[in-house]
Specification:
224 residues; RNA Polymerase Alpha Subunit, Chain A, domain 2; 3 domains; seven-stranded mixed β-sheet; 4 helices; elongated
């Protein structure tokens, strides 16, 4: 028994001693690392939203997160290292209040979530839909005396948009970026883009819009 115990402690003694010293040194380094707190503003990411739904909220939700951990770790962090995630699986059209707790925030190891503001947030959801709307060109410019805009043609005249259903129902038309037709005496064409002011409505397959402006004299005679 004595020989066995002696071999246990003496065999490879140097390697065991080095390992022990390294472990103690590592522990001391970690124990002496100053602890600090920082605040970060991070976006709230929505996961697993059903394909037939849209988030019907014009404000994009962010959270103020207070973190505590080793100073060296916190100083090396960026916004990309912290994520606030909310699972929207099985969500239906309507309104919903969500709790935002530490379990929703992904942070590096050794970092603790101390506080989240807001602790709750409210969202509304609506069914996703599509609709075809007219394109209304915007024409600006200074024209020669006696000349006026007789006709404006958009090509294509309609575009398809998608978004929350009730917002689409209120939409009257899409608009183009303004085209400056200053100095046009007869017919001129311009290439521009169409857009919808509502940020929650998107254009399906955006493409350039060709706007043709036709001028006429005060007497109603169109110039070629």
């Amino acid at each position: 028994m004595g020989n066995w115990m002696r071999r246990l402690f003496l065999d490879h003694f140097i390697y065991k001693a080095i390992s022990l010293l390294l472990a103690v040194g590592l522990w001391l380094a970690v124990a002496r690392t100053p602890v600090a707190e920082i605040e970060m503003r991070v976006p709230i990411e929505f996961r697993n939203l059903p394909d037939n739904l849209e988030v019907d909220s014009a404000s994009f939700t962010e959270a103020e997160v207070r973190l505590r951990g080793p100073e060296r770790v916190l100083h090396g962090m960026s916004v990309a290292d912290v994520r606030a995630e909310v699972d929207l699986s099985n969500m239906q059209a309507g309104e919903r209040t969500f709790d935002l707790t530490a379990r929703h925030v992904r942070v590096p190891d050794d970092v603790q979530v101390v506080q989240i503001i807001p602790g709750q947030f409210h969202l509304s959801f609506d069914n996703r839909d599509q609709r075809t709307v007219e394109v209304h060109p915007r024409v600006t410019g200074t024209f020669a005396s006696g000349m006026r805009v007789a006709q404006v043609i958009a090509d294509p005249p309609n575009i398809t948009v998608t978004g929350p259903r009730h917002r689409l129902e209120k939409l009257e038309a899409a608009t183009t970026d303004p085209v400056d037709a200053s100095g046009t005496m007869g017919r001129a064409s311009f290439t521009t883009q169409a857009y919808v002011a509502d940020p929650l409505i998107q254009v399906v397959k955006p493409r350039p819009i060709r706007v043709t402006v036709i001028m006429e004299g005060a007497g109603g005679e169109k110039n070629k």
